[in-house]
Specification:
- The protein is an alpha+beta fold and about 100 residues long.
- It has a domain of about 60 residues.
- It contains 1 helix and 4 strands.
- The longest helix has 12 residues.
- It is elongated, with a radius of gyration of 19 Å.
């Protein structure tokens, strides 16, 4: 009970996390989320009626493609496009001084 209340509060407090669209059965692939797959082609073979394709969004921009099993209540896979962040110089703050090989 406490967990469901906490989850509900998070959804209302952070509505951007809850955006998404179930992709229609008649739509090819994951619609606007096809970009997250190599060659814009999602994996094949998941044809059960309880497998639901979801194009998850954040700030109205596609972020993840997820194949969700409504029978097992679990995601079968999620896909996203990784882009490396711009380097912002030395990040020595991540290194413990006791194990660093360079002088601080």
């Amino acid at each position: 009970m406490k967990m469901s209340i906490l989850f509900s509060l998070c959804i209302f407090a952070f509505p951007g996390f809850s955006q998404g669209r179930v992709v229609g059965v008649d739509e090819a692939g994951f619609a606007e989320c096809n970009e997250f797959f190599y060659g814009e082609t999602p994996p094949e073979g998941f044809t059960e009626s309880f497998h639901v394709k979801i194009c998850q969004q954040y700030n109205k921009e596609p972020r993840f493609a997820t194949l969700y099993s409504t029978e097992d209540k679990t995601p079968l896979y999620s896909a996203f496009k990784y882009t490396k962040a711009a380097r912002r110089g030395e990040e020595s703050w991540l290194v413990e001084p006791q194990v660093s090989q360079s002088p601080q």
